[in-house]
Amino acid sequence: MNANKTHANKELAIKYAMASVEWQDLRQLTRAQIAYNLILPYPFLLLSWWFASQSWYVMACSASYLFFAAAFRQAHDGYHHSLGVSKRTVTGILLFLSVLLMTSLHSIRATHMEHHRNPLGDSDIEGRLAKGSWWQALLGGITYRLDIYRQGLRLSSRRNQRIAWLEFGLIALVVTTAIVLTVLTIPVLSLLTKVLMYHIVTMMLANASVGIIAVWGVHHDCDETVARTERNPVVNFLTFNLLYHVEHHLFPAVPSNHLPELANRLDATAPYLTKAHVLPSMATVMEFINHYANKLKDRNQRNNDSECPIRKRFV
What we know:
- This protein is mainly α and 315 residues long.
- It has two domains: 2-273, no CATH class; 282-314.
- Helix content is 71%, strand content 0%.
- Helix 3 packs across helix 10 (190-208) and helix 9 crosses helix 10.
- The chain is globular.
- The mean pLDDT is 87.
């Protein structure tokens, strides 16, 4: 009964926010913003390859993270046709990014649309990891990705299935090429092989970590709203506005460029929907530390009491 009441209250709050917040003007993009959206990931990709070719792997991993996050944003806006380009262009972008990210974005697109239709519901396989603990989301990253592929192919149209299988084929071709080059150890191609293997490994690791960051991080313990959000400007800058997640769920047609402005409007109109943040506050962190410190202190105290024969006699 309480669960149904909470769900009903959530639905009413969301409907009120969507009715009271002005957002249609935020759908528009300038030519400069469209160009920015299209170019954004690729300088980081080239930087990561160059750093990897020089064996500067710390710098390479930092650039790879920025590429992955920026490409994830580009694909995500592509799912919702908010990049400012045609549907045919979006198809080409997702196909190209699938090979670079080593994941089939057209199969993920199908499950992502279901995630928006029924967020955290029984049919939402994308949001499944948010219902468990953080360590389950961390350890379940690889099997979660395979489940997404299977469900995405089931939910897809025939056209989308064909494109997804093409993506899988191209990814397999890249991996096979990298393995062959590694086995043959051709001196002329050694640098290419090194960079290619580095890129494949980092993208595989990044894909395995999506569950803990992009699912559990933005959806766990969302009893009063559909998702979490973030207000730390540095974090939002480094994640390319991807953590404005409740804003995105309420108004998925708004491009990532305008999510900060949408967040300001939501804070002013419906602050109860934006109070759950992705990163915990310092007060929450200290409370967590003190709680476990006290538990550890109590456990040590009980152990000392049980081991002391004099204390045992007085108990």
